[in-house]
User: Which sequence fits this backbone?
């Protein structure tokens, strides 16, 4: 297991977002994923929480008092508690924002205005501030005010209509993919906006949404819809227009095979002893093979069932045929490639044991992502952050006394 | 339909990547998505293609000689043909790279070395260059040399194991999600590396992979696996630990409802006339309702079947209950919110009619994404790009004569 760094060099250059301060008003998942990505790049992320803290602190598997789900999405953040409903709390927030480069929020549209951080006020008070918003549907348009949730935006975006089988009908996928995609887009937008600010001295608003992020990820399916006016069918594990393609049966389990071209297909069939099939008219072209898919699949299953998954995967990969197995999450986290890529990190959380979490999907050779600090206990950095914002010890005590922090 | 801009202001500030030149060696999907995202932010993207061009030019629905799939992933790019197997072609490539800020590629690991662009050579010749690689499994580790494909990395990442129903078993999702996520991560990494380069004058290598990108998107499912050692089950449209949650039946179709908290659940049940159920012991707590899910779902279906989707969606959203309908892609592209968010663009392609494509998922208020140019015909900018790189007309003619370009 890796120690929380990634890449060969460490520390010779400062991280990309070293010196960038982020005030983070987000909770649950989409916004926290955005601010986590910024923290992984070295930003100083100040997570602002209400007295009860982010709900995710109480969700998922909790070990030694720490939700591992929370821990994995809130590394590299500091936590301050702040009552944003009180005037004093709003004043503290403004002082934090005055010292920040980026504000991230995933409230419903309109909440920032109530905090005195509407567009006009921001442009007047904090012209260099980059404000990133992650929301359900975008802040303009007929659905702007709707509450959102991953499942609902999977449904609305068209993603569910192209996930599933003819038997299941439209299907939600397990991971909350719309939250994560929107959070990643927002972090991407923040980097773009910081570049403009560094160059021109002007901040701006960045926005991504669960629904539109997913709309942008439908690839050839949306292209086909727009070109033909006809919705693509749900096809399960079959490819709509390629054959053979799918899960085939080795002695001890399935092997996923995707022969991407006729040349790759020839190598595949050659490896499993079926190259002669390509000489038969009913299997000659892809169109022929789509028509005879079930017959061909049965022949392939028969040819492959004499050897194990491992044998086939080694042989086919060596022959340049994209293939692999369907891994459970248990298998994935033990996968040697996942280890080599340092995608499972063991992060010590003082007082909460060691938390295992997924690593960094972006590798930067010179300035790698790092876990500089584990996810914070609720309010653990309230005093530090207030002091950095210029509050005197007695002022901090007074804020604490009155329940503002 | 929008005209290819997004946001209120246009053109007052230069785009984030104005003046950034990208040499783009990518093809198919993951890499082209990365370079498209950079182009949407204003980079000058030079797509380098072999004589046959990117395979996607011949894929998907083709109208007036243009693949709409290709068009939608290659906007904001210029195209130059170049034979990278010839020494002269490699020399041209090096001249392009010498004038570039970013190189993007999605070859298998090792191909860059053959082009004279291995790590050591790059650091010596082009120390300010940012090199982004998108590959299947990462460039180190036991699977580094394996050919990859979306379906295979959906399988290997664990995604398929948490997609599907108990009946279907592990299921691939329709969209090539691992390609798109990896491309987005790579573009995010490029922006981070450009920031370092602008500050420190040093380029670096950026890498993302189809498998590891997806591994990073399993959220509470991977957190649960790591915390408990037990793989989560596939649950279809049911939420593993929340009830009620799912698709319910209105008079004319399904309504997806996700009551995220007990308070929201109360509002939901109140709207459909079932608030009294919460007083009954068998429906009192979430745990009770998970145990009685099928009974509760039947009661909800019965309560909702008297009104239409549209009525319920309006009423429930107004009550703050996240809900929506499962939209086909046909419905999605006609959705008024999609229109308001300018997520379907009509882009004129001279000689190929008007191509409709998905818009920009990231909104930047001051420097919005734009379509400055439609996807290029193969090699359309060869002469321009070579001239900009300092080639004289007779040199360009000679390169053309010898089949290098």
Assistant:
């Amino acid at each position: 297991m890796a120690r929380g760094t990634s890449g060969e060099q460490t520390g010779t250059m400062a991280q990309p977002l070293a010196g960038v301060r982020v005030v983070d008003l987000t909770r649950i998942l989409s916004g926290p994923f955005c601010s986590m990505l910024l923290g992984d790049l070295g930003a100083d992320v100040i997570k602002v929480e209400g007295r009860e803290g982010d709900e995710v602190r109480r969700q998922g598997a909790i070990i030694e008092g720490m939700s591992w789900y929370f821990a994995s999405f809130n590394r590299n953040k500091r936590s301050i508690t702040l009552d944003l409903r009180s005037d004093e709390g709003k004043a503290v927030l403004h002082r934090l924002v005055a010292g920040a480069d980026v504000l991230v929020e995933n409230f419903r549209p309109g909440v920032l205005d109530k905090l005195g951080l509407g567009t006009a006020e921001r442009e007047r008070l904090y012209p260099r501030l980059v404000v990133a918003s992650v929301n359900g549907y975008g802040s303009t348009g007929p659905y702007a005010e709707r509450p959102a949730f991953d499942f609902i935006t999977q449904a609305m975006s068209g993603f569910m209509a192209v996930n599933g089988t003819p038997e299941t009908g439209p299907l939600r996928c397990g991971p909350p993919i719309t939250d994560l995609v929107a959070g990643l887009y927002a972090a991407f937008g923040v980097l773009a906006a910081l570049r403009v600010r560094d160059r021109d001295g002007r901040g701006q608003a960045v926005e991504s949404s669960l629904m539109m992020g997913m709309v942008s990820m439908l690839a050839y399916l949306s292209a086909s819809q727009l070109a033909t006016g006809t919705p693509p069918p749900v096809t399960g594990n079959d490819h709509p227009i390629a054959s053979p393609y799918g899960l085939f049966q080795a002695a001890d389990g399935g092997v996923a095979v995707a022969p991407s071209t006729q040349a790759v297909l020839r190598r595949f069939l050659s490896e499993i002893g079926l190259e002669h099939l390509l000489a038969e008219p009913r299997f000659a072209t892809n169109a022929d093979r789509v028509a005879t898919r079930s017959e061909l699949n049965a022949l392939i299953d028969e040819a492959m069932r004499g050897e194990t998954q491992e044998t086939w995967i080694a042989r086919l990969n060596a022959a340049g045929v994209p293939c692999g197995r369907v891994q459970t999450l248990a298998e994935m986290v033990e996968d040697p490639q996942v280890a080599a890529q340092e995608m499972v990190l063991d992060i010590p959380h003082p007082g909460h044991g060691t938390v295992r979490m997924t690593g960094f999907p972006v590798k930067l050779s010179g300035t790698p992502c790092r876990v500089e600090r584990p996810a914070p206990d609720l309010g653990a950095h309230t005093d530090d952050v207030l002091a950095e914002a210029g509050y005197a010890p007695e002022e901090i005590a007074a804020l604490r006394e009155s329940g503002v922090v």
